[in-house]
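== Fold encoding ==
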Amino acid sequence: MLDLFDTPPVPGLSMREDVITAAEEAALIARIGNTSLSPFRFQQWTGKRLTHSYGWSYDFATGAFAPTEPMPDWLDEVKARAASFAGLAPDDLVQALLIRYDPGAGIGWHKDRPVFEHVVGISLGHAATLRLRRRGAKGFERAKADLAPRSIYHLEGEARHAWEHSIAPIELPRWSITFRSLSSKAKA
């Protein structure tokens, strides 16, 4: 795991541990557990993780991007911390994605949709590995970062736009809250 003095494995990735306490983590996991989570769907495929979006949603079957239910008040404090960590105003983070990963679940290689700009994630439960790759002339350049429980990461600039990322399949339950800001493409 990176500390404040480590060089990130990819420019534009910043990380910090212990952004929330263990008690706050337990409360957030309980809140996520009380949310109507649905299996993640990508075209005709159904993922092993369960999700719920607030603020904005993206339908991977139709490509539709639309407003959805507002973020609940219980996300306000953690959203404020995420925004502060990323150097943003809390109102800049307009989308929240809750995810529950059961054993065997992960996320395949991808870049977040271009309608989003900053990606700020908070890792809950058990550790996970954030994998990064970008295509070069001689194949893929790869990097990875460990996401400890109660840690935060921010993808911007090169890490956000030039690199794909994924979450390696996990062996123990994990939850995450990912906040995103809108890009100028979405605001146009």
In short: The helical segments are 22-33, 76-86, 157-161, 184-187. The chain has one domain: 13-36+70-187. The first strand starts at residue 13 and ends at 16. Confidence is low (pLDDT under 50) at residues 1-5.
